[in-house]
Amino acid sequence: MMMQLSETPNQKNSLLNAMNRFIGAVNNMDQTIMVPSLLRDVPLDEDRELGSLKSDVDEGDMYSYYELLKSIRSDIEWGVRRAAADERRKESMKITRKNSSASTSSSSSVSSSSSSDDDEEEDEDLQKQFQYHLTGLQGVLSKLTQQANCLTKRYKQEIGIGGWGQ
């Protein structure tokens, strides 16, 4: 389980804090929802905040989204599931085999001066890719945190605890 860290103003937008906020929201959701089966057949579209995600969830009810949020939390805490990693590894091996024969024939024509320029461009490109994906991941984690909080609120409303305006 990840340790909850206190946020300083400079760290508010850090990836670690975004992950901690999400994990905290899902932990709160998990502790609040004592009877998850009550979420079955409760449609997401009754809530504007959750309704936009209906297409992402197969069954389209709050229970399936509850399970999805817990699964994502588990992936963050323990790593991506082994089956998905194995599938990617197999796909990567296919691509590597295809590219290895093509790259061996083309690599002999590359000069050493252009190689160092390519390395600098590749490093800059990697930094841009990292920043792009980091920004996207932080945005997704922020939305998932909101969804976990919204689902918790909806559950409280469904079972009649907590105020409607909270």
Explain this structure to me?
Helix 1 (15-32) packs across helix 3 (62-78). The protein has helices at residues 15-32, 48-51, 62-78, 82-107, 112-159. The chain is elongated and about 70 Å long. Helix content is 68%, strand content 0%. It is found in: Cytoplasm; Nucleus. InterPro entries: Lipogen_MT_Stabilize_sf, Spot_14.
Question: What's the short version?
Answer:
By secondary structure, the chain is mainly α. It is built from five helices and no strands. The chain is elongated and about 70 Å long.
- Helix and strand sequence: HHHHH
Number of helices: 5
How many strand units?
0
Distance between the termini: 28 Å
Helix- and strand-based class? Answer: mainly alpha
Low-confidence stretches: 103-110
* Largest beta-sheet details: none
Region (Disordered): 86-126
Biased composition (Low complexity): 100-115
Family: Belongs to the SPOT14 family.
Subcellular location: Cytoplasm; Nucleus
How does the SSE layout of this entry go?
Layout: H1 15-32, H2 48-51, H3 62-78, H4 82-107, H5 112-159
Helix pairs in contact: 1-3, 1-5
InterPro entries: Lipogen_MT_Stabilize_sf (IPR053719), Spot_14 (IPR009786)
Region (Disordered): 86-126
Main location: cytoplasm
